[in-house]
Design brief:
By secondary structure, the chain is mainly beta. It has two helices and 28 strands. The protein has a single domain, classed as Methylamine Dehydrogenase, Chain H.
């Protein structure tokens, strides 16, 4: 047997022979629709505040606006550069996009037209978020900074520096007084919005922090990391409350509207499986677990999801908690509906 044949057999066994991930098939949420109009990786998904629309942003430089009631594509918003993240204003009238060209763009949803550009980042903007009152946008990126912008004027209010590497995610607290940022420097930093000063530095992760999410009541911050953990922090004193472990890098998170559940998304294969997937392409016969649904209070894993054929880059609950949306590197957006059975 030649070395090439042996290598192929080993690769085949690892790639097709098991996911090394706990599987929970509770069927709490069931796949109802797959949207396939994007031509490249889908990096971000968000629902409108009224739940009528679902927005997806992609490396293909478009935002797709889907009608969740008719499950159809209503319009496409074309952008000048590949999109890394999207956020919808609290009033549902505007969408902000982060992009590889380092520019934050604000567009009016109803007319699908560009309203304003925010320039100042040096390198890719990885994430952004609207303040709860819709008057500010926080953005972060490759230049290791967090920038705070005035939505109405486009003015840069302040720049927050302290991270030493890429800042991958930024989130406002529900009361608008605090900003949390997660970075490739393995830290989560907490900032005061009024003066821009850092108030806390959370260092319990051992690898890059990729996603953050505040619970709706603001009492918990979830952080996901390449160290294959999801950590929950008590925002009252910023102590570590709990750690959920999985066998994958975790790169997306969102709380349910009642704060009782947490959906997370990430890589669908082990490290070697990812290598083979990049070499051989997505496999319909080897769908690994790429999403996990958790009970926040107990840490129990409620459901795993294995329908995507590549990594899940973002997840989002609908405002009523009846739907979950997921965006993936397999170029699709999937919509999951809460089953009719009462699982409270």
């Amino acid at each position: 047997m030649t070395a090439h044949v042996c290598l192929f057999i080993i690769a085949f066994v690892i790639f097709f022979g098991g996911s090394e991930s706990e599987i929970v098939e509770s069927d709490l949420y069931r796949l109802t629709r797959t949207f396939s109009s994007h031509t490249s990786h889908v990096w971000s998904v968000r629902f409108s505040p009224n739940g009528k629309y679902l927005f997806s942003g992609s490396v293909d430089s478009t935002v797709k606006i889907w009608n969740t009631e008719t499950e159809t594509l209503e319009r496409t918003l074309k952008q000048p550069a590949g999109i890394t993240y999207i956020a919808v204003s609290p009033d549902g009238k505007y969408i902000a996009t982060a992009a590889y060209d380092g520019i934050v763009r604000l567009s009016k949803i109803s007319e699908a037209v560009l309203v304003r550009e925010f320039t100042g980042h040096n390198g890719t903007v990885w994430s952004l978020d609207f303040s709860p009152d819709g008057k500010k946008i926080a953005s972060c990126g490759e230049d290791a900074t967090i920038k705070l912008w005035d939505v109405q004027s486009g003015r840069l209010i302040k720049t927050m520096s302290g991270h030493t590497r890429n800042v991958w995610d930024v989130k406002f607290s529900p009361d608008g007084t605090t900003i949390a940022s997660g970075s490739f420097d393995n830290t989560v930093k907490i900032w005061n919005v009024v003066d821009g000063k850092q108030t806390h530095d959370l260092r319990d992760h051992s690898e890059a922090i990729v996603a953050l999410a505040f619970s709706p009541n603001g009492k918990i911050l979830a952080s996901t990391s390449d160290d294959k953990t999801i950590k929950l922090w008590n925002t009252g004193n910023w102590s570590l409350m709990n750690t959920f472990e999985v066998s994958r890098h975790v790169q997306a998170a969102d709380f349910s509207p009642d704060g009782k559940r947490l959906i997370t998304g990430g890589r669908d294969q082990t490290t070697f499986g990812e290598f083979l997937q990049n070499f051989f392409g997505d496999s319909e016969t080897n769908k690994g677990v790429s999403m996990w649904l958790w009970d926040v209070s107990t840490g129990k894993l409620l459901q795993t999801f294995s329908e995507h054929t590549n990594d899940v880059n973002d997840v989002a609950f609908s405002p009523d908690g009846k739907w979950i949306a997921s965006g993936s590197s397999d170029r699709t957006v999937k919509l999951w509906r809460l089953s009719d059975t009462d699982h409270k």
